Amino acid sequence: MHGSGIIGSLRWWYEAIIRGLGGDACDPAGHDKCKFDLKEFQKAKNKGENEQNALKRAGLCDACKVFGATGWSRRFRLKIDEHKIIPAWNGPTLNIRPPDRSRGWFLNPGHWGIFTLILHGEKPVLEQLADLLLFLEQWGALGAKNQLGYGVFHIENREEVEQRAGRWRWLVTGNEPAGGCPDLRRFGFFNIRFKPENEKWWTYIPALERLLGGENTARALKQTGERGMIPLAPVLKNEWRFHDWQGPFSIAQWLFGASREEDRVRSKVNVSWAYRNGEKWEMRGWVWLSPKDGSGQVIASHHLQKLWKCFRNENLWSSALKISSPELVFKPADQRWREKTPAAVRGFLEESTCSSS
Ligand SMILES: [Zn+2]
Predict the structure, then answer these.
(1) Residue 169 resides in a domain
(2) What residues have a C-beta under 5 A from ligand 1, the ion?
(3) Same domain for 274 and 212?
(4) What pTM was computed for the model?
């Protein structure tokens, strides 16, 4: 596990939230990323501007103010204590291959266990990071390869983090963000819970049945199952992409990512593994219904509607997981997909991190 991966994903979410709240965050991978102008910064400070305004005058967006840009350092330090982290299973990469796929998805064991994030910084920054972590615990994930289901976590010292949280008093500045970057207004979230009749429910799923036939892969699956996690993200992605959604190939690649090049075309569809949560099992995820594809072409609205319908398809969940009567929750709850307003995004963030949830 790497600190840089954690910081990278915190930044990714931070930017998506800033944009979702109607603020401006640059694309740090793009050509219009912020450049810090020290002279402008000092000039503004000398004129008596507060730091936030001076940073804006110096050319920083709200994300770069906290996460840094060339010439302006990150406003917090992060250390990870991971001595209680082990691989989710001992053994091989698992090739999760539904019967109708020739190649399937490859999952490595990743990390499992308890880790500690130690954060240092000024109070307003730590308040925002606490808000962010509480939100990601409910609806998001940390670290790399969320599109394959990695990165789900639970906060052990929840009360302490809640006390430190700023409760989304995030002020955003700037203009309407350009449409090409992740933006919470165009995110749809889902959560599914179910109580299987049979403890061995997952062994009847064809893509896993195949792995249970091999000695090493069977041992690996059994091990992760005992730890309350079943790597089922590929099974759902396969259903959505190849069975339910039938649109142009180029859009499928953009939205679902290319399975050979997960990192080059990052999937907009993210779904966790199944994991035990008390008496029930749970899966959750999110989709970024980006208005344009990789080449900047507008994606026709009916394609996005169809995709949203795929996720809401209860029968699909039941048949893919071989379970009955799952409880499904969607945010936004609307049957028809529509972009949220900044006010609705703020409401969702507040609701998802209040202590009753
Ligand atoms: Zn920036």
Answers:
(1) no
(2) 26, 34, 61, 64
(3) yes
(4) 0.94
